[in-house]
Design goal:
The structure is a single chain. With 228 residues, the protein is an alpha+beta fold. It has a single domain, classed as archaeoglobus fulgidus dsm 4304 fold (2-Layer Sandwich). Strands 3-2-1-4-5-8-7-6 form an eight-stranded mixed beta sheet, sandwiched between helices. Strand 1 and strand 2 form a beta hairpin. Helix 2 crosses helix 3. The longest helix is centred in the last third of the chain and has 21 residues. The chain is globular, with a radius of gyration of 17 Å. It starts with a helix and ends with a helix.
Length: 228
């Protein structure tokens, strides 16, 4: 299984684009994607939530969720294979076709540049961004440098001379978030959108923050419904 997954990642990574495939000024909608898990006996279940917002007004256009059993065991570096089936099922429920998908996770910041945000882009056929709340050491050793304590300050995450992502401080006196390109978008545009879509309520951009909140609501509802 792992050998097959590795082969797929290596094939797809050759197709990653780190440039904008669109006019950033023409973006109208962005979807936040997040998942949360729970155990039921020996089985692992998860719910995926997607929240679509209007970029200009920051208002919610649509939200959908899908709950299912996780079929792939956890293997470091291969998270996308666990999560992608639920993400695609949730996407099928959307009545809106978002211009951009933002994931609570990583994209290019990955040992093979194939975090969930990047991997999913090849199935969603849309630009994608990974915005993580915690730092992932893609090479298991490289740390990041703290940005200055000002909104919009950032430091690049450089591994072996290559920029994998950025630590971005969206507000003063808060922890940074970690931005990495998914696919078909530049790192500068991804960081600009992260700042544009972050309000005063949190240091996390609105789409993924709302998706995260929805996952907890839907997980509790599902566990109450099934008695798990």
């Amino acid at each position: 299984m792992q050998a097959s997954f590795l082969r797929q990642q290596n094939e797809l990574k050759e197709k990653i684009s780190l440039s904008d495939s669109f006019d950033p000024g023409q973006l109208r909608t962005a979807a936040g994607v997040d998942l949360t898990y729970w155990k039921c006996g020996d089985e692992e279940h998860a719910v995926c939530c997607i929240v679509v917002i209007d970029i200009k007004t920051r208002s919610v256009i649509e939200k959908q969720h899908f709950t299912g059993r996780i079929e792939v065991p956890y293997m470091p570096g291969f998270l996308a294979f666990r999560e992608l089936p639920l993400i695609l099922k949730t996407t099928e429920l959307l009545e809106t076709s978002p211009d951009l998908f933002i994931f609570d996770g990583n994209g290019y910041l990955h040992p093979r540049h194939m975090g969930i945000a990047t991997h999913a882009s090849f199935y969603l056929n849309k630009p994608t961004v990974g915005i993580a709340k915690t730092y992932f050491r893609a090479d298991k050793k490289t740390d990041y440098t703290e940005p200055e304590n000002e909104a919009g300050s950032y430091t690049d995450i450089v591994i072996n001379g290559e920029i994998y992502g950025r630590a971005l401080r969206t507000h003063k006196n808060v922890k940074p978030v970690f931005i990495s390109v998914g696919n078909r978008i530049s790192l500068d545009t991804a960081c600009g959108l992260a700042m544009q879509l972050t309000d005063r309520e949190s240091h996390i951009p609105i789409p993924t923050r709302l998706a995260d909140l929805e996952t907890h609501i839907e997980r509790e509802a599902e566990m109450n419904r099934t008695g798990r």
